[in-house]
Amino acid sequence: GEDVEQSLFLSVREGDSSVINCTYTDSSSTYLYWYKQEPGAGLQLLTYIFSNMDMKQDQRLTVLLNKKDKHLSLRIADTQTGDSAIYFCAETTSGGSYIPTFGRGTSLIVHP
Amino acid sequence: DGGITQSPKYLFRKEGQNVTLSCEQNLNHDAMYWYRQDPGQGLRLIYYSQIVNDFQKGDIAEGYSVSREKKESFPLTVTSAQKNPTAFYLCASSRADTNTGELFFGEGSRLTVL
Prior knowledge:
Order of helices and strands of chain B: EEEEEEEEEEE
Number of helices of chain A: 0
Low-confidence stretches of chain B: none
Strand content of chain A: over 45%
Shape of chain A: globular
Helix content of chain A: under 10%
Mean pLDDT of chain A: 91
Low-confidence stretches of chain A: none
Strand content of chain B: over 45%
Shape of chain B: globular
Number of strands of chain A: 11
Largest interface: A-B, 23 and 24 residues
Mean pLDDT of chain B: 92
Structural class of chain B: mainly beta
Number of strands of chain B: 11
Oligomer: heterodimer
Largest sheet of chain A: 6 strands, mixed
């Protein structure tokens, strides 16, 4: 199976909250990341969380980490049409070269 | 402004031709990377380099080659040996003295083989 798994699509109404989920398999994960990719562009780091943290909040973004279940989520409050993009979950692991392993990405579609 | 520049943004090539994608960064980063992105498959690592004059194969290096003669530059050649070269190619860089693994990406190059 894949190291990092995400569902491929999520559709939400403008103004609602979006929750994008990710599961990973490596228990030696050190950092977990959320990257955003707008159409035809590269990826930008949105936020990251160290593996000894449970939660991180940054304005409209909330990251939750459940180490026991190896589950990471990204919540976007008050989702706007400008949030429509592909969101990638990624991890780095201890003992490695600190090169992130990426999930397949979740396409978030925000409709009026 | 500091950043990563990829060129060209769009490229068409005939089967059997080699093509080189450019990647330049002025972030003073030691490490550079090439990823391939296909719809629904996420990012797959082709090659990476953590220091000048040294590079390592990633997960899908076959049919590709790179060089790292300067810290700022990491060009990728897609050779005729690559069976399915049509894809979106992303270059990235990172600091080597940190373990956060944060990558900075270019805007990508879309290669289409006719």
